[in-house]
Amino acid sequence: MQQPMRQAMGLLRSPASQEAVQQLVASTSFGAQQFRFIGGDKVPEFWGKPSAYTEGTGFLGTPKNHLELTHKRPLSPDVIEIDNKSVHYNFPWGARASIANRVTGVALSFGFAGAGFFALRGTLDPIVAKIAGSFILGFPIKFLVAYTIVYHLLGGLRHIVWDSAKVGNQADRSSLLEVPRVELSSKIMLGGAAAIAFIAALL
Fold first, then answer.
1. Is 56 strand, coil or helix?
2. Distance separating alpha carbons of residues 47 and 158, to the nearest angstrom
3. Structural domains in the chain, sorted by start
4. What pLDDT, in 10s, does the model give residues 143-195?
5. How many CB atoms lie within 10 A of CB 178?
6. Burial class (CB in 10 A: 0-12, 13-18, 19+), 26
7. What's a single GO CC term here (predicted)?
8. Dihedral (CA of 98, 99, 101, 102) sign
9. Is-contact 166 175, C-beta < 8 A?
10. For residue 183, what are the contacts with CB-CB under 8 A and spacing of at least 6?
């Protein structure tokens, strides 16, 4: 049983079999223009243009430079516009809060790792004392540290609440996962963390 199977697989993998498959696919106008770019990231060169395979789509109003326009078209979903400057979509408050939650998480990881490094070297206490002794230096640093910790904590608590929240529907919009409520909780998190961090930095 295994021997015939091996022979069949060998025939399918032979150059002659692969060439036959290519000729079969190329026998149709659609296959002829599609097959050459399978697995690639290019636009078929004859798309929309008169060729040996098709009369083109000029009768549908396709612009003559449509291939050039296609190459400039951003992939969707795309964050940055073609000019690589402006954003393609407006960021809602929910997205901003989500990004901030991830940024604060990364900052906490590096921050605690750095504090642990200096603590093991025995140089953490002098650094903390120097920061605490200067309001100009200490206030912004304490604010940033407090904001990072408080905001990430609030973000984690919100996710715990979300895990147990019900999913709304078109008739019931009271769910905490509805967009307006997500926007509201995001603003509360951003503003509340800033207020708590400000008070903590003054202490």
1. coil
2. 49
3. 2-72 (no CATH), 93-202 (1.20.1300.10)
4. 999 999 999 999 999 999 988 877 766 666 778 888 888 999 999 999 999 99
5. 16
6. middle
7. membrane
8. positive
9. yes
10. 92, 93, 94
